[in-house]
Amino acid sequence: MVSGPLPRLALVPGEPAGVGPELCVRLAQRVRDYTLTAFADANALREAAARLGLPLELVAPRSAGAGSRPGTLAFIDTPHAHPAQPGVPDPANAASVVLALHAAADACQRGEMDGMVTGPVHKATINLGGIAYTGTTELLADHSACDVVMMLANATARVALATTHLPLREVADAIADAPLERTLRILHRALQRDFGLPAPTIAVLGLNPHAGEAGHLGSEEADVIEPVLDRLRATGMALVGPLPADTAFLPAKLRGFAAVLAMYHDQGLPVLKFSGFEEAVNVTLGLPYPRVAVDHGTALDLAGRGTADPSSLYAAADTCARIVHARAAFDRAAAG
User: Fold this and answer.
1) How far is CA 141 from CA 19, 107, 134, 236, in A?
2) Per-residue confidence of the chain (336 residues) as pLDDT tens digits?
3) Quick check: helix, strand or coil at residue 279?
4) Angle 299-302-303 (CA atoms, 0-180°, nearest 5)?
5) What CATH number has the domain spanning 148-286?
6) Rg of the chain in Å (alpha carbons)
7) 94-109 and 136-144 helices, crossing angle to 10°
8) Could you tell me the residue ranges of all domains in the chain?
9) Superfamily of 1-146+290-336 according to CATH
């Protein structure tokens, strides 16, 4: 356990018809070294607790011990338009799902919360509710008006993404000088500040098979990726690559890297999820506060059954709390 004040974490369940509410109820049962304040619909959480047969007391955020005792959650109500039915997402509830995310982000930016932990959101339902929504990472970046990087992590690896939710046809055009440099700078800074790695070595994958095969299979490596890496190496960053994606994740190589930067979503994430899906988490780097999410979807087919694995949400909350402590230590050291 890390010493210091208990990190104050905002907890957002996500899609109310999915497994998010019941996972939050399970998280509330744990002995924890952080506090939890749920931004959610009270009835949805109580109904999930009843289905699971678990105790749940929702308490005022400023009550004694709020959010730290097993079986309790500090609570800020963001009611849904319609009662949630497990397995049946309702577009009428899209606005409340997004409102909860915004409210939690506002609380973090005001300094009332130290970090945010989020459950899975059903993108199609949000869009059917009339709200343009690409993903929570993008929503929070827009909310904070800052550039961010998506990174997934488990005990085996950390994999960050140069591009996120793009059609494959658009990826090559998105691999450009300025965005790639910005991504690497954000990743490098986060590894130092959020993960306590003073001199991280980052592996950078090529875009094309065999990292372009000296230009025979594509020119993006020579035209874009290599010049960016050379420029950042001159500033002191330890960057290896561009590497062929098919061999970069070999265990002997991976042990030498603090993180791997993949050029697109399905280049790096399948490997990470195969290596440990249950406890993988999704970290948004570059926000003014830590945000960690589960690395799975809404699991509508499991909602209401009480069988969903809470491991990823447990890992997300634990990771977020560690990042809060790491940032505080880094900032104290930087201030002298």
Assistant:
1) 25, 15, 11, 27
2) 455 689 999 999 999 999 999 999 999 999 999 999 999 999 999 999 999 999 999 998 877 666 788 999 999 999 999 999 999 999 999 999 999 999 999 999 999 999 999 999 999 999 999 999 989 999 999 999 999 999 999 989 999 999 988 899 999 999 999 999 999 999 999 999 999 999 999 999 999 999 888 888 889 999 999 999 999 999 999 999 999 999 999 998 999 999 999 999 999 999 988 888 778 999 999 999 999 999 999 999 999 999 999 999 999 999 999 999 999 999 999 997
3) coil
4) 85
5) 3.40.718.10
6) 20
7) 50
8) 1-146+290-336, 148-286
9) Isopropylmalate Dehydrogenase (3.40.718.10)
Check if 1-146+290-336 and 148-286 are the same fold.
Answer: yes
What does the buried/exposed string (b/e) look like for 260-278 if buried means 16 or more CB atoms within 10 Å of the residue's CB?
bbbbbbebbbebbbebbee
The phi and psi torsions of 91 (rounded to 5 degrees) equal -60, -25
